[in-house]
Amino acid sequence: MKLWRLAWRNLWRNRLRSGIVLLAMMFGISALLLMAGFMQAMIDNMVANAIDLNLGHAQIHRRAFIENQELQQVLADTPTWQQRLHAEPDVQAFTPRLLVDGMANSAASNQGVQIVGIHPQQEQSVTRIQDYLVAGAYLSATPGAALLSARLVDKLKLRLGSKLVLTFADRSGQVTGAAFRISGVFRTPSSAFDDSRVFVRQADLARFSGQNGAHEIAIRIRADANADWLARLQSLAAADEQVRAWGEIQPLLASSAESIQVSNALLLSIVMLALGFGITNVMLMAVFERSREFAVMLAVGMRRARLLMLILLESLLLAAVGAGGGLLLGGLLLALLGHSGISLAMFAQGLAGFGVSSTLYPHVEPRLFAEVALLMLFTALLSGLYPARYLLRQNLAERLAAR
Amino acid sequence: MRQLWRLAWRNIWRNPRRTLLTAASVALAVMIALLMRSMQEGSYAHMLANSARFFSGYVQIQHPEFWDNKSINQLLPWRPEWAQALREQDTIQAVLPRLETFMLAASGDKTRGAAVFGIDMAAENAYADLRALLRDGDLPPAHSRSALLGSRLAHYLRLQPGDELILYGQGYHGNTAAERVKVAGVLKHPSPQLDARLVYLPLRFAQDMLVTGPQVSAYLINPPYPAQVEPLAARLRPLAAQTFNLPTVVKTWQELTPELVQQIVLDRVSGQLLLAVLYGIVGFGLFATVTLMTLERQRELAILLANGMNRWRVQTLLLLEGLWIGLLGCALGLALMLPVLAYLHRHPIPLSGEIKQMMEELGLEPVLPFAFQADLICHQPLVVLLLLLLCLQYPLWRVRRLKLAEALQG
Question: Is B246 helix (H, G, I), strand (E, B) or coil?
């Protein structure tokens, strides 16, 4: 089409002017992609950490346990659950846990903790605490070993190999103290997790508490699982049991994962609004300069509608080039930083409060690229309307006479 | 000079649409920046006030080793008459004693780890308005042997006011602490983690039970305004050393809640990055305007020069034109935004739905507060000015290099 070519050529008549707007678009769009990528990385990391440290993708509890966390409220039949879960194709791994609320004591201090009785082999196939060991080793078959965080060990003024006394109420309500030896120390990206948990073997905890079995089964789902995996698992549960996905267990976490949509929308609208002003400004200048030229075009028989089209096309082409350049630059930077990662070590403590690691790998959903491109074109179209309207309202005969 | 200002003012209105568009984009940036920054700073102050009210206070005096392990063995003497003397100072709103430790709380066959705080009920209530959080019963009288429980803990232990609770744990220097305690009241603490473990006891009773004698873990000292924290802490350091004649540390909220500090800084930095992008884009528009205003008038500027105007006067003219546009934008933005901010500052936006629930779970009053601070407001025109000076470099350079003969030919 001839109009396209005309518009394209017109764009490059004033290179400085078009160049400034193109630079503005490239700057705005690539910065937008980086910021969105950074926020996405932070949220994804927070969710992934919560899942990898403790939650798994889903958990099974007795309803009464969710309600009041009583020691007696173990799952009625853990072995049957184990068989069922083994048979489920979507389940990658699972781990039963015995949970007892109590205190960790040393001569120096005492701290309230959740004592988690685990099966070390199975637990490692669901959670990744073993990746965060800073001293000693993960729990093994040796009885009487305890695994806890460096933060807790420091607060208790203990060391690897020290004796740790855990106090809790046993099945009969008697307060019991049990001595464990610290066999491993970890430091995860989540301070809340680190402050509140001591891991011991399920067999040890069952012996001291008088309560066998499991309160909780955490499940890791395969990456290629069917969409209905949750419904399938829920159909296996008895009436007094509940299977919940991670988002239901931690609604706060799930809603912050959803809030990324809102913050992206905000980011997009601010950037587009500012760019829209820039495009309008430049197109208005272009129209001012060329009003005589437009008058001539009309005088020799060009229709007003086509003239309007021409201006909108110029605006669109400008935006297309700018958006293309911005997306390319932003994509390149994202690829680079997504590979090398950004270190936020100076904010490590604050991030740990959210359960976020201090090295982040920015990335965005591919959909965002398309959204940015479409929005940019739409913004350009809107921005072109005002200059076009201005042009059509001019008394062109007068312009033609003017010199 | 006045003449130059007037000339510059007239010049920018030779193309009113361009001037208005550019000024509008500056105004837009100023408005968004003001709204966002005041919302950010407002919510930080909100978070801080909540954290100080319900958790750690603004300033604490502690035994030097207490902070590392929260041990019941690292205490300071409790001097009520000294606390009273502090309270009478203008820069101090509240002095609250805290004796804190971890114990097991049991009722029937249920047991749970509990965070036990011995507090001055009357002073704490006066400062943090505990009564507003009460769900059942009443605050324990100062000399009673009764407790105030977090609602989640009370629910778990199935306890109501009038029932008995057993506390069991370690007292001072290895003493065993075990007591039957009457439940006086149940309160809903804004932090769910603490609400599930919280036991407040009258200070005297806690001291008896834990065999500490007249000692406390910390003095919480709160000034009326957060801005007074640093001078207050500086004043308390020598005073505390002198009063206790013991090694002490004075910690401010920044040290007591380093996570909160970093979260605030992180959020502030990410907000400022967004504003940098916004101002950057607007800067490009500003650059386009001031550059084109120069380039399209090369001939006119050359005539001014040829007629004997100094080059620096021409440059000043361009500078003033840019300034007028920037000023116009700032004035427009401030005029539109300041009344809105002033209103929002007095009437914070109440939140609803999921966010409301989320805020409540985080222990925050579910409102969106806005700060109305001079530094935030002054900051924006400064940024615009800086941006302008940056944008003007190229046009000014062009004028300096303007070749008269060529430009005059047009």
Answer: coil
Nearest to A97 by CA among A193, A171, A203: A203
Q: Measured at the alpha carbon of residue A181, what is the angle toward residues A176 and A184, in degrees to the nearest 5?
A: 125
How far, in Å, CA of A117 to CA of A197, rounded? 10
B70 and A108 within 8 Å at the Cβ level: the answer is no
CB count within 10 Å of CB A311 equals 24
Residue A28, SS3? Answer: helix
Check if A292 contacts B (Cβ < 8 Å).
no
Contact yes or no for A25/A282 (Cβ under 8 A): no
Mean pLDDT within B189-202: 88
Burial class of residue A304 in the structure, from the number of CB atoms within 10 Å of its CB (0-12 exposed, 13-18 middle, 19+ buried): middle
Return d(Cα B170, Cα A165) in angstroms, integer: 12
Interface test with B, best of A277, A283, A318, A390 (most B CBs within 10 A): A277
Question: How far apart are the C-alpha atoms of B332 and B28, rounded to whole Å?
Answer: 9
Among A184, A178, A105, CA closest to B113: A105
Q: Which residues on chain A are in Cβ contact (under 8 Å) with B69? A: 108-109, 154-157
Query: Across chain B, what does the average pLDDT equal?
Result: 90
| Chain A residues with beta carbon closer than 8 angstroms to that of B110 | 68, 70, 169, 173
Q: What b/e string do you get for B100-138 counting C-beta neighbours within 10 Å, with b at 16 or more?
A: bbbbbbbbeebbbbbbbbbbbbebbbebbebeebbebbe
Strand partners, B179: B167
- pLDDT band with cut points at 50, 70 and 90 for residue B141: very high
Distance CA A104, CA B70 (A): 13
Beta bridge partners of residue B178, listed in sequence order: B168
Q: Which of A341, A326, A321 is nearest to B280 (CA)?
A: A326
